[in-house]
User: Fold these one by one.
Assistant:
Number 1:
Amino acid sequence: MRVLEGNVVGIDIFYTKLLTGDNRFVVIPNGTLSNSDLINVTNEPVRRLDLLIDVDYSSNIKQVKEVLNRIALNSEYVIQEEYQTDVFVNSFEASSIQMGYRVWVKTEDYFKAKWALLEEIKETFDKENISIPFNQLDVKLVK
């Protein structure tokens, strides 16, 4: 099953027309749509932005949470008044601790907010000496 995302620009009796984010015009048979799950991400004015951020096992979790909360608090995109920012340990991966990061943003700002937050996270982690690990493979030679 392929996933398409875009703006509906027309609905006819047999087809629905979609314009994707990269400006592709897609025609989808309505039968396909009636037999599929549809997610309308623009129906509400506010949308939750979920990020997964890996940090090194040597990281201080309390510090990571404080930094991520501070980034959300200082972001022009994150809505503070009615919605809570969530920062939590999501899982323990092979080379990292995976942090979950959930903030609420205006639907129209979703991608701008995502890109700005990711950039700010990287810059702030560098300043705070919080390491973002990369996958590693240790090979041992046995004679």
Number 2:
Amino acid sequence: MIVNSSKAVTLSEVREILKQRESEGELGYEQKQTLDYAEKFSKSSKKDADSKVEEIMKNEKVLLETAVKIVDISPKKIETLKAILVKDKLELDEEEINSILKIIS
């Protein structure tokens, strides 16, 4: 298999892609395990997750990969959100952090 490109996707999108592939034929072991994980831990529909990622991305400081991770984890507490943001060394003010928490709640 040749990889032409790659991009960050939410667990909801992973779930949809693998369900579609499952309906087209049998999944391999890793794909089955990934589908099981995505079904257990994805918290919203693909449409809802994509819209949340877009909203978060309106803040130009936040990278796509970080926005996807925020939506996948859906932190409830400021401390958890800050722990995700620290990976990219992002320093958001209190208003920006509360805005993100509002989007994902």
Number 3:
Amino acid sequence: MPSHETMQFLLSLGYTEAVSSGIINALLQNGIPPSSLFTMVKGLAGRYEVGEDGGLEALAASVKLELEKQEGKATVKIWCLPSTGWSPASDEDAGALPTVHSMERAFAVEALEGVTLTDIVNHGTGENSDVLAEYLECACSGIMACSTCHVVIHPDWYDATQVDGEGVVTTNHSVDPKKIGPPSEAELDMIDLAYEPQLTSRLGCRVQVTKELDGLVVLLPAGSNNLMDFVPFE
């Protein structure tokens, strides 16, 4: 059956059964005949072997968002402050932190708990998600292969305390659930390549929005370094 074949294909791409069912139902409800379902989904998947999506990711994100709403996930508000409202620390002072001087320039972004800042940029539908997308490029789609989703966490929301215990994993690498913790070594390697990295820098693809972080303040850099522009894909 087309639906079974399509389901197996979606599962092979890493989508959950719930999201896969949602994708299938959405296409059928929009008039795609069952006989064309598999062909349509494969077309939307694009050249998935090399990471070139044809629209399936956006559809899956929409389905996932709807499922999360049905699950009753909380809406979280974060504040994003453009570079005109804060100043990076001086390179000459190794221990200096960024300075905020005008929160009036900040704009609020709303998202459901559980998503990352990169998810908001790529698939967000909440308040000012599109505005945030104007500031963060997110060139590698969240696989931590670039630094274009680089953000700076307001010092009041950052906890540099390292999580104790080998193999221990916590949300946002933080001991305090109401703070953003320090980056992992792999993440730090990419942050070192970012535009004007700070002591409280993180990659947006590794910052997860949670209920405890309602009101989080994120500082947006004045620019980005996109090394993906220099990768020869052909």
